[in-house]
Amino acid sequence: MTEHPDKLDLRSQDISEERKQELLRLFPEIHTEGGKIDFERLKLVIGETVDVGKERYGMNWPGKADCFKTIQAPSMGTLRPCPEESINFDTSENLIIEGDNLEVLKLLQKSYLGKIKMIYIDPPYNTGNDFIYPDNYTESLQTYLQYTGQVDSEGKRFSTNTEADGRFHSKWLNMMYPRLYLARNLLNDDGVIFVSMDDHEIDNLKKLCNEVFGEENHIGTFCWRRRAPSALADKLVSSDHEYVVCYQKTDFISLGTPKEYKGYSNPDNDPRGDWTTGDLTVGMTKDQRPNQFYPLIDPRTGRTYSANPNRVWAYVQESIDKLITDNRIIFSEDTSRRPMVKRFKSDLKSKINPVSTWLNEVGLNSEGTREIQKILGENIAIYPKPKSLITALLNCAASPEDIILDFFAGSGTTAHAVLDLNKKDEGNRKFILVQLPEPTGRKDFPIIAEITKERVRRVIKKLNEEDKKKSPKLFSGEKKKADRGFRVFKLAESNFKTWNADIAKGNVGALEKQLELHIDHIRPERSQEDILYEILLKSGFALTPPIEKLELAGMTIFSAAGGTFMICLERKLTMSVIEAMAKHKPERVVCLDEGFTGNDQIKANAVQIFKTKGVNFKTV
Q1: Which of 417, 479, 550, 554 is buried most deeply by CB count within 10 Å?
Q2: pTM reported for the whole predicted model
Q3: Residues 6+ apart with CB under 8 A from 297
Q4: Each residue of 237-266: pLDDT tens digit?
């Protein structure tokens, strides 16, 4: 019997299947003959940990069950490369993706699973008119394609969520839940997510995050001042703050904030270095610590310093004597002023302080508005967050080599903050932005995604111009060039026409149409690069690998991941090119199924040749 190559799976990652396989790995005894899970047996295995009661603490709302269906439904979309809208497309590791973030998050599952260190999002606050959502979450890609005019539609199926709607909060939760669920998968174990919110949905957001990330993974809720008090405030109470809710994946530790040493000096030339004075008392009474209540005598002058009965010395007499001998006590000439202890900078165990949840050095929202006005030269009413807010969060969580994701990207403040911070500390942080092409009503920037891209372009141009003005440092050596670019991708339906069995059932005309479509199953307007990046994405590769074009046996071969993955998109394959690829001994090879049309012998030989070389061979 002739062997055939496996088909490349064009669907995004199957989340539910992964969860099922993990359960079966942990509890193989719950496996049934049909490959399903025996939940009754699972209850027996885990015993008393199963809660079978009807009433239990938890969060529920209309549409929650459909959220799980949405999460489990794989995406059949793709991300089409747009080099003409990018900067340094072939080399940059930064991404700006135009599309519905739910579909994009699904498509990123294979490639970026567990690779993101920090996620920041500024989602819709559900104020009544501030966001658009698909009416039917189970048809998200189709909804998006109709909305953006990529397929025929009877009308737009995105709209605002008004307070008059009977499911006002539920619709917001239905929008947020799948996105947070998929986002969690992308975080690495020490990764963290920050979510901006105001009072409209802060209580629901925290409950939602408790369910998705686990209540035990709540790191903290940051608070910052967003505006000056308003004279028009309702009830004469001006709500001037916002929140940033923070959750870890499992093992996040903040980078902290560097300690400041402004108060340290060395006026007495102590050989131990700079020091500052510290309190020599402790908040205990003489009754609580009687052995720490005694008069303290300066052995050099004989002056006596009385103890405070309500705040005794921090040490017993013996320990104080050792500190005096070690020249660590500072006595004042005024005996009414208590002595102080020297605290040396060199004795500090940690050079950092914890991050405060009170972000008092962050600018107001008006700062964000001024920033984008300065960059684009005019007032654009999309009310971005101030860059200083994102910078504060980056300093808390993102090391110089980390990847940062923002899937409600807006004007691109996150990318701006990443690029600026990289310049400051010579880091190589990468950003991934996702933004819906939401209409603005403007001619110059018809959609928000255009504002996103243009802002980042101008920030990059400004940083490059600043570098040119600097004179090179002597003996600075060769340093890695900063990644000041980005690759643009746009969400679209797959490059390959997929078989729709549901349409074909019981409908002869529809079946004939399906057969006609599959005479050539590649969409005619798609380029080799479109197909290449879909294959990379669906094969679990990132969207930014170095790709080399090779000429083998007179045909073009794309070589990725250091030659371990070869992709041939030629429409008429020969044995020569199959043998040439096999000689390079890649780990994986993907060819178009169309390349073997009318020549099953070459296909069969290709299977055997790649099998002999230990190459994973698939067609699409």
Answers
A1: 417
A2: 0.84
A3: 303, 304, 305
A4: 999 999 999 999 999 999 998 888 888 999
CATH superfamily of 77-258+354-467+482-490: Vaccinia Virus protein VP39 (3.40.50.150)
The residue extents of the domains of the chain are 13-72, 77-258+354-467+482-490, 275-349, 511-619
- For the stretch 509-529, pLDDT in tens is 555 554 555 556 888 889 999
CB 534 within 8 A of CB 545: no
CATH for the 511-619 domain, from 1.20.1420, 3.40.1800, 3.40.50, 1.10.3470:
3.40.50
Does residue 581 contact residue 566 with C-beta atoms inside 8 Å? Answer: yes
Q: Select from 530, 520, 617 the least CA-distant residue to 571.
A: 520
Report the alpha-carbon distance of residue 75 to residue 64 in Å, rounded: 20
Percentage of residues in the chain with pLDDT exceeding 70? 89
Residue by residue, DSSP assigns 202-231 as HHHHHHHHHHHH-GGGEEEEEEEE-SPPPT
The yes-or-no answer to whether 77-258+354-467+482-490 and 511-619 have a common fold is: yes
Distance between CA atoms of residues 184 and 426, nearest Å: 28
